[in-house]
Amino acid sequence: MRLNSLTLRHFRNYDELQLPFAKDLIIFLGENAQGKTNLLESIYVLAMTRSHRTTNEQELIEWDCAEAYLAGVVEKKQQTIPLELGLSKKGRKTKVNHIEQKKLSSYIGQLNVILFAPEDLSLVKGTPQLRRKFLDMEIGQIDSVYLYNLVQYQQVLKQRNQYLKQLAEKKQTDPLYLDILTEQLVTFGSKILWTRINFVKKLEYWANQLHQLISQEKETLTLHYDATVAFEEANLADIEAAYSQAFAAIRAKELFRQMTLIGPHRDELVFFINGKNVQTYGSQGQQRTTALSVKLAEIDLMKAETGEYPILLLDDVMSELDDSRQVHLLEAIEGKVQTFLTTTTIEHVRDKMTVQPAIYYVNQGKLEGEKTE
Fold this sequence. Notes:
single chain; alpha/beta; Rossmann fold; Glutathione S-transferase Yfyf (Class Pi), Chain A, domain 2; 2 domains; six-stranded antiparallel sheet; six-stranded mixed sheet; 42% helix; globular; single-stranded DNA binding
C-alpha cells in the first residue's frame, strides 16, 4: 500500500497544497512550528477521519474558513483508489472512488496508517485510556465489524450511564429498561473484548520477535489483556455469560456510583519483560524499547491481516531514540513500507539511510520545493 498523492485545502495552516509522492521515504524537513506535523496529521486524518492531536475538528480547519478538504490517491492490490474527506460544522463527508460513504466502517481501512510520535513512547508508561485508544484505532483499521461494535457500545454505554443516574435520583422508576440496556451492552462489549484478546495475542507474537532482536535475545516481551470481568475460556459464549453474571452482582454498586463499572471501557493492556511488569518496574529504556517493539509489530501484523503493508508516519521520533533504536527502526521499515518522516535535521539519520529519500523543506506552511538527495 502506498499514497501516490495528497491534496489539502484549508487544512490547518495549509491554504492549498498538492503533493505527488514517487518515493518510498518522504522527509518533511524544517524548524519547529512550521507545519511539518500538520502534514503527517493530514495523512492520518485522511485515513482515520479524525485527528490524533485534537477532538475538536474545528481546529483542523484553517482560520476564517468554513470547511477543509483532504484527498489522496491510494495504490493497493494493483489498483488505485481516490479518497476524499470534507470537514465542516455539519460534520464529516467521506468518499471512496468518488462515491459518498454513509457508514464510517465503509471508509476506514481503505488507507491503513501507523503513526509513531514522541508521545507514543509513553504507550507503556501512560494511562490505561491511552492503551485502550491504541487498541481501538489499530483494530478498527483492519476490522470494520469491530468498529461497528465499538460505536454501538459507546452509544449504549452513554445511555446506560444516564439511566443509572436517573434511577439513582428517582427520576426514573422502570428498572426493566436498565436490563435492556445491560443486555445490549453485554452483546457489544463481549464482541469487543473477544476481538481485543485475539488481536493482543497476534500483536504479542510480532512484538516479542522485535523486542528480542533489539535486546539481543536477553529479554522476552509478553502482553496481557487485563479485563474487568473474569471468564473461564476466551470464547464469545463464556465472555457473555461472565459479563451478565458480573453486571447482576454489582447492580446495587452501580446504582450507588451512577456509572457502568465494568466493560471494555475500563479494561487494561499490561506489558511484561521476563515476567516483570514493565509499567511498574521497567526502566525508562525498557519502556521505550517495549513501545518501539509494539508499534513496529503493527507493520507485520497489518500485513498478515490485510495482505498489504500499511503506511508509516514518523513524527519527529528519530531524535527521541538512541542510535541502536534508530538503527532497528530503520531496519524494520527498510524495503517494506512507504514512510513519511518529520525532522528538524537529517544529520542523525543520514548515514543510516539505505534508500534515497524525497525531501520537502517546510517553511511557514509552505513547501519550498522537493529535493532528492
